Amino acid sequence: MTSPTASAAHRPLVRVGLVLVGVAALLALVTAVLVLAPELTMKQRADIGSTLVVDVPADRDWAVYSTLTTWRAAVCDLTAADGRPIVMRPDMLQQNLFGWPTWHAQGSFELDRGERLTVTCVGPPGQFGVGPSMGIIYFLLVRVHGLLAALLAVAGLTLTIVAAARGKRRSAVHAPKG
Question: pLDDT tens-digit profile of 128-141?
């Protein structure tokens, strides 16, 4: 006969392990949303060689992205509604927007007020669009969430397997011989 304390002793550890795996799954889902959501914000896209008119709200960094994998392969000009040029910063802190297709940063800019911009890009065949600039904070946030999800999944699975094996071994030791 199996001792009730021997078989039940592993159950709390199995529950903890399963909770960790569940939390890891939620973090993996959050990571997937963080990776794919910015790409979804680029609703207006155009072919390289054409012009795109886009309304851009203020108080945020924005970027021009293209489907071209080489940085600055497309030469893009931005013009405000009043005709003044908007200069893009050539910083390399922007991250690519992953999705279908992956969008590669071409340069970023910030506006002190919302404006309607005319964007023209020339270069090899592909597409371009204007979207939120995703910098180093975004990069770190995605990596931390992903790493934490992986660590919790490994810890939860390990705890669950070890606790279940111990419970099985204890059950076998206390099983009636016959």
Answer: 998 887 777 767 77
What Å distances lie between residue 136 and 109, 143, 175, CA to CA? 15, 11, 58
CA distance linking residue 55 with residue 61, whole number of Å: 14
> Helix axis angle, 136-173 relative to 11-40, nearest 10°?
160
Two tokens at 162? 């070890």
Residue type, 57: P
* Contact call for residues 48 and 68 (beta carbons, < 8 A): yes
Mean pLDDT score of the chain, rounded to an integer?
79
| Residues paired with 55 in a beta bridge | 116
Beta-bridge mates of residue 109? 62
